[in-house]
Write a structure and sequence with these properties.
The chain has 367 residues and is of the alpha/beta class. The protein has one domain. It has eleven helices and 16 strands. The strands form three sheets. It has a twelve-stranded mixed sheet with strand order 3-6-5-1-10-9-11-12-13-14-16-15, with helices on both faces. Strands 2-4 form a two-stranded antiparallel sheet. A two-stranded antiparallel ribbon has the order 7-8. α6 links the parallel β11 and β12. α3 packs parallel to α6 and α4 crosses α6.
Length: 367
Amino acid sequence: MATIYFASNRNVLHETSANGRVFGERFNAGGPQIFRVGKAEIAFAGHDPKDDDQWSVGATRLFTETLDSRKADGVKLGSQKLFEELRVALKAADRDVIIFIPGFANTFEDSVRRAAALQEIYSTPAQQVMVVLFSWPSNGRVQPAWDYFSDREDAEASGLAMGRALMRLVEFLTRLREEDHKVVLAARRDGQVPEKSALKQCTRRLHVMAHSMGNWALRHALRKFAELNGGRIARVVDCAFLMAADEDNDALDVPLKLRHLDDLANRIFVYHAANDVALTISDRTKGMPDRLGADGPQNLDQVGERVFAIDCRQVSETALTHGRHQYYRLRDEVIRDVQATLADQPQDGRAWRETLRPGQSWRLPPK
């Protein structure tokens, strides 16, 4: 059983559900900028956590919004309850947080099962992770073709809600680190030696992972996050994982695209595959050429030294229906690479890497 905390700007169907049916496929009735938060219990009944069909969504509830006279609008956001529970969960174990932004054609139920799977497969004894999902209102359909453009517009319109959610999560984790630091300082001041676990809490990190069209959504979330912070972007994210990105291959060069991700994150990892069938279809049928998730950054010399490109063309093959687009969660070679990054294992020491350009790019060979 896994617990997944989430935020979504989808329209609310039910405050609670026994099977995850709390959201629809449109925007919140108050507008795309409004999001609700909650948690879902996800059961695993099988042997392979990479198989979505072996995960089932159980009890799901939205955290209640209540009146608060101290707020200008009289509303006390449910995110306070989410942060209270996150506080307990993160203090109970040394875990990093990954914000996951799914891609095109995913229902809320699809996305929450995927988040549970990622939480399981990316966690290792060296570094446990907690995945927090942001589910924008993708409608879960790949046909007809106009659903792609509908989802793309919805991902863009979701930028403000995602930017606001990211800002609140960053503020929460910052306060949590400050509280942990005060505990350690107080213990030292009193002549006590803090427990090892207490010291480790101060190193808690935040990561972002976007898949496919989720990278387009991330572009707009980043812009809104900057606006909400007066145009300033603090480096509050450790790793940004751009998986099979349905984004322009110059996105990391252009300020109005993803250039400022370099200001937000310590390291940016672009996983790409030239034989990604899903992105090829996006090019041929939807007029979206030169995808970041196909060939990687257009010019590594033009992006910051924090950017790393990982060529996955030799390890992209999975089931035929996946279109070589789901390797980030299905191929062991890619999973191990992500795990090593999260555990801060030395990059040059990864036996399964064939280095192409030291410090900036490498190819993952099949194993």
